[in-house]
Structure formats: C-alpha cells, structure tokens
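We append the chain.
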Amino acid sequence: MKKELNIHFSKGHRQHHIKKMLLVLILMCGLIIASPALAEDNVYTVIGVKTWYCSWDLGGSYKSQQSFLMGPSLKIAKDNFFCGVTYLISLNDYEFDKSVSVSRSDLDLMMGYMLHPRIGLVTGYKAIETKIDSNNTNIANQNYTSPVFGVTTNYPISLGSLDFILTANLNYLPVSIMHYNKQEKKSTDWGDNNNGYSGEAGIAFMIGDNIAINTGLKYQLFKWINGSNDKFKGITLSLDYRF
C-alpha cells in the first residue's frame, strides 16, 4: 500500500511569498524608471503576468492535483541582447492527501543573446523555495538553486489579419538542494550537480503591436543523485505588454 501524503498551502507561507513578490515588483519598477538605456530607440521592455497550472509527480510514487502558480515578469532587450526576471508563487495546494502541505516559489533570472532572429542562447539563475508543513506546523524547508544554460526559439505566423508566434525553450540545470529540518534544527546538503531539465513550448497571440497573450505547456524534471526524481508539468498562460 502506498504511503499517504498531502500537500497544501498555509496562510503564513502565502504571506511570506507575497512579501517577496512585492519586493521583486518594486525592484522591477525601479529598474524600469532608473535605466537610461530604456529611452533609446533600439530598446524595448516587456512587462507581464505569468501563470503555470501544474502537477507534481514525486518519483512516480505520488502525484498531486493541479496547483496554480502566478507572478510578475520583466524582460528588457537591446539589439541582440536581452535579460529578464520572473517570480512565481503557488496560490493553492499541491494536494496528495490530507496530512502534509508544501508551498513553492520560483525565481528566474536570465540573460541571453539572439544568434539569429529565430534562435538564441540563454544563461541565468534559478531558485525554488519550498516550505513543508505537517498538521499546520512547519517541519522543513528545501531550497533548490542552479545556474541555467539553454536555447530559445521563435517562429512568426500570419493568417490574414491574425499574427501568431510559435515559441519554445529548453534548459539544463545542474541543481543543488539544501534541506533544513526545523524540528532537529539541522541543515543537510542533499548534493550538488543533480541533473535538471526544463522545457516549454507555446504560442503567442498578438493583439495590435503591444499586447500578447501566451499559452503553452511547460515541463520540469529534476533527477537527484540518490536515484529519485521530481516532475512538474502543466499549462502556462501569460499576458504581456511591450513598450
């Protein structure tokens, strides 16, 4: 018989992640206002809201119901160079059963260079923070951190007056994970250079010259050195405004 496990989201963890989201928003606004480069003709900025409706598969033993992640995004591009930041938090539970709860936040920092208008190279940094509760008591935290190396591509399509852009990206993440047991007050390094992979494919619907609605599928796989793995997959949806 499989061991029962439940994951849901506590009020305290939601407040913790929302405070971080507000900080990221303030930093984004400060960057937009303060950067003199944004006034140049060959620079554009994209601000948006991203969502990810995804499930969590714990090594094939447990699979959650869908959880909803949402947060702000910012991208700035000049000529062939671009950089950006995204911060997502889980707004509802990763539910497996009714005993354990886990909240999650994702921070993505990236920069890249377009080798061609249709393909580019990307590097950056990713951090995932999870907080684990048992019976409304925070028993452990886990932090995942990794550099990011990947590629991105796009292909525009016009059908009469309708404009679309097909998009895709694939990234490799040599992940490190740190586990903190709050009951024992002990931190454990669960290994460096675990293998992580992230991919997303979708389509952007253009509304005029400045607004885009993006939807697609996103998949993450983390293969740990102890032989276990975590899988996240689900539908993405975002709204972007370019200026």
Notes: The radius of gyration is 19 Å. The mean pLDDT is 82. The longest strand covers residues 137-159.
